[in-house]
Design a protein that fits this description.
flat, Nucleotidyltransferase, domain 5, five-stranded mixed β-sheet, DNA polymerase, domain 1, alpha/beta
C-alpha cells in the first residue's frame, strides 16, 4: 500500500511508458463516489495507492495527466468519474481495453476477466467485487483481487494493439478514445434532459424544470447525497408541470420530513425558472411508427456492416445514435458530427442513402 506522496512518486517512476490503472470505490449513500484505492501496474510491478491517505496525490495526478505515458484502463467511465471527483483531474492518453476489444470482435461490453482469459490466458476469480473497499487494513483477499484487477492490463493492451494494427483499425480506435475523453460532462443545467417524459413539457415548463433540477443537483452534490434522497424526480416533474402552485402543494408533493427543509428553496428555484428570459427548446417527441421503420432500416445497415467487419454493432451506432441521426438529417440535411471520422468512412454513404430513400 502506497500512502505517501514520495512513495507514490518513487513507484510511478518505475512504471515505464505504459501503465495499467484501475480504481476501487464505494457509492451507496453518497452522490460522489468515495475513492478507496488506485491500482497501478507497469514495468516495476503493481502498486496500490491508498485513496484514503491524507496526502496531495501529486505524483499520481502527474502520471494521469502525462500525455507521453499511456494509461490502460478497462471500461473507464466510472474510473474517470472517480478521478474527476477525488483528484480533480481528467486523465490524458487513455486506452480502454473494453473499447479496443469491440473493434476486434462483436462483443461490446466484455468483462476484464473475459479479456484476461482471451488475451493473456489467465482465469480470474472475481469474488471480491462487492467487498468493503473502505476497510482498513484491507484483507489479504482484497489485496490479491486489487492486484489481479490491474496486473494484466499492460499485456492485454499489447495483444489488442497488435491485433488493431494487423486489421488496420488502430487509427479508428485512437480516434474513438479521443472522442470518449473529450465528451462533455453533464452539468446541473443539462441534467433535466435525463428525466422521463420531458418531451411533454412546453418551453416555460422546461425552464422551470431546468431550474428545479439544477438546484437539486447542487444540493445533492453539496450534501453528498443521492439525488433521490433530496427531492425525487417525480416531485420535480410535478412541481414544474403546474401553472400555479402554492407552498402547501409543494409540501404535499415531497416525501416525509424533506418538505420542511426544501419547500422554500423549491419555490425560489421555480420562480427563477419562470423568470428565465431564455427558456430551453422543447425536447423532441418520441418517434412515431413510420420513423421507427426508418430507424429499423438504419439499424439493419449498421448490423450488416458490423457483421462484415466482425465488430460490435453498438460501437458503430446504438439505436439512440440512429434516432438522433434521423432527426439531425431531417433538420439539417446531413448526418451529425458523430458520423464523421471512422464512422463516416464505414457508414456515412450507406446511412445517407437509406435516409434519402425513406423520404
Amino acid at each position: 500500500m502506497l500512502d505517501a506522496d514520495d512513495a507514490i512518486a518513487a513507484f510511478v517512476a518505475t512504471l515505464g511508458d505504459e501503465a495499467g490503472v484501475d480504481t476501487e470505490f464505494m457509492r451507496v449513500r453518497t452522490f460522489h463516489p468515495i475513492a478507496a484505492l488506485y491500482q497501478l501496474a507497469g514495468e516495476g510491478g503493481v502498486g496500490l495507492v491508498d485513496a484514503a491517505a491524507p496526502i496531495s496525490f501529486a505524483p499520481l495526478k502527474a502520471l494521469l495527466q502525462d500525455a507521453g505515458r499511456t494509461k490502460i484502463m478497462h471500461s473507464c467511465s466510472e474510473d474517470l468519474e472517480v478521478m474527476a471527483s477525488h483528484l480533480g483531474v481528467r486523465p490524458r492518453a487513455v486506452v480502454d481495453t473494453q473499447i479496443a476489444h469491440a473493434f476486434l470482435t462483436p462483443e461490446r461490453s466484455a468483462s476484464y476477466a473475459a479479456l484476461a482469459e482471451r488475451y493473456v490466458g489467465v482465469a480470474l476469480d472475481k469474488q471480491e467485487t462487492r467487498s468493503d473497499w473502505l476497510l482498513r487494513p484491507l484483507l489479504p483477499a482484497q489485496l490479491t483481487y486489487a492486484r489481479l484487477d490491474v496486473v494484466h492490463l499492460p499485456a492485454m493492451w499489447r495483444a489488442e494493439r497488435e491485433a488493431l494494427e494487423a486489421t488496420g483499425r488502430l487509427a479508428w480506435f485512437e480516434e474513438e478514445m479521443r472522442r470518449v475523453l473529450a465528451a462533455p460532462a453533464e452539468t446541473p443545467e443539462t441534467w433535466y434532459r435525463n428525466l422521463k417524459g420531458v418531451w411533454r413539457f412546453d418551453a416555460r415548463q422546461l425552464a422551470v424544470l431546468r431550474s428545479l433540477v439544477a438546484w437539486r443537483e447542487r444540493e445533492a452534490r453539496s450534501r453528498n447525497l443521492p439525488r433521490a434522497w433530496t427531492v425525487p424526480d417525480h416531485a420535480l416533474l410535478e412541481i414544474a408541470r403546474w401553472n400555479h402552485i402554492t407552498a402547501q402543494q409543494v409540501w404535499a408533493a415531497l416525501p416525509g420530513r424533506r418538505a420542511r427543509r426544501y419547500v422554500a428553496a423549491l419555490m425560489e428555484a421555480r420562480r427563477r425558472g419562470l423568470d428565465d428570459p431564455e427558456p430551453p427548446s422543447r425536447e423532441p417527441r418520441p418517434l412515431g411508427p413510420q420513423d421507427n421503420l426508418i430507424v429499423k432500416a438504419l439499424r439493419e445497415v449498421v448490423a450488416r456492416e458490423a457483421s462484415r467487419l466482425d465488430m460490435a454493432a453498438p460501437l458503430l451506432a446504438s439505436r439512440r445514435d440512429l434516432e438522433a441521426a434521423l432527426r439531425h438529417h431531417r433538420e439539417h440535411g446531413e448526418l451529425p458530427e458523430q458520423f464523421a471520422g471512422w464512422r463516416g468512412i464505414l457508414l456515412g454513404d450507406k446511412l445517407r442513402d437509406t435516409l434519402a430513400n425513406a423520404r
